[in-house]
Amino acid sequence: MSITSISNLSIVRNLTSALQNQQLSLSELSSQLATQKKHTDLTDYSANDARNLIDLQAAGTQCDAYISVIATASTNLSIYDTIMTDLEEIISQAQSLANNNPTYTEDIASNVLIQTNNYLKSVTVDLNQTINGRYILSGSRYNTQPVQDLSALPLSTLDTTIYTDNLTLPSYDTEFVEGAGSTSATAYTTDRAMIDDGYIVDYGITSNDPAIQKVVMGLRYLQAAGNSTDTATYKSNMTQASTLLASGLAQIQNLHTNIANNVNVMAMEKEAQKTEISNLTDRVSNIQQVDTTEIAIKITSFQSVLQASYSATGSILKMSIVNYL
């Protein structure tokens, strides 16, 4: 083999290696143009950029999780809002019934009883509302219906006691046992949601909230008035009913106001999380994104270089073959 042929072979190897490198570079540029990212694999970034990308992506995932929690809480709040609106309407109607029928007659009492039983049945439906198979006012007893048929409760459980210890069950709770001093902390456990780092909102309502106890008790005394058989008993029951309903309505309105406030909190926090996701996305893009115009120019340049390299390599190869002949 001549010295010339050995020299040509070395040149061919160098050109081939250069071609491979140029093809790899062109392939990488084409991938960047298609994905608009510098790299598709974190290992190709610097250690600092890779770490930042992981942290930013994790933060974005956490924001998505908060938005999901907010969506669930907002749905529950919407149901609470509907229930409170209905309770306010029922209480107002019950108060009108009491105010418009101050004097006992058998017919008046009968009419009061019929209407009050309808109110109690409506409140029973309200307090036993479900969402996705879960009783929304049952505390953490998600699969337990919280309230008995309020229109069918025994007179033996009628009194004016309102429990505020977040433990003792009122007589209308499904787990109440007459004479047993029934208690349940889970019946009073209200819904809460973490909607941002360290930001927890207590937004739930249970069927045993003191405000609801007063409403139920007020309606039950109105029912008792309808069951009365004399003027004195009728008047006494009506007085108790009116007092409890007035106080219950004020407390229900406070609960309703808190619901409205929490609806606004959820809406604002949802927007804050969406804004944070947008900011995180921009920061990720700053690390990942390429200048597509610059990449396109580089691709055109590499294609020209490759074409020239192919031609040069072809010429050298022809020379090499001649040298072997």
Could you write a compact summary of the structure shown?
The protein is mostly helical and 325 residues long.
Give a verbal description of the structure:
The protein has 325 residues and is mainly alpha-helical. It has a domain at 55-280: f41 fragment of flagellin, N-terminal domain, CATH 1.20.1330. The protein contains 6 helices and 4 strands; from the N terminus they run αααββββααα. It has helices spanning 3-35, 47-99, 106-127, 210-227, 231-288, 292-324, and strands spanning 130-131, 134-135, 192-196, 199-202. The strands form 2 sheets. A two-stranded antiparallel sheet has the order 1-2. A two-stranded antiparallel sheet has the order 3-4. The longest helix has 58 residues, at 231-288. The radius of gyration is 38 Å and the shape is elongated.
Uncertain runs with pLDDT below 50, 5 residues or more?
A: none
Q: CATH topology of the domain at 55-280, what is it called?
A: f41 fragment of flagellin, N-terminal domain
CA gyration radius, whole angstroms: 38 Å
The largest beta-sheet arranges its strands as 1-2
Number of strands: 4
Total helices: the number is: 6
For the record, the CATH class of the domain at 55-280 is: Mainly Alpha
- Under CATH, the homologous superfamily of the domain at 55-280 reads f41 fragment of flagellin, N-terminal domain
Q: Helicity range of the residues?
A: 55-70%
Major pleated sheet: 2 strands, antiparallel
Query: What's the average pLDDT?
Result: 85
Task: Tell me the β content.
Answer: under 5%
Distance between the termini: 10 Å
Shape: elongated
Structural class: mainly alpha
Report the CATH architecture of the domain at 55-280: Up-down Bundle
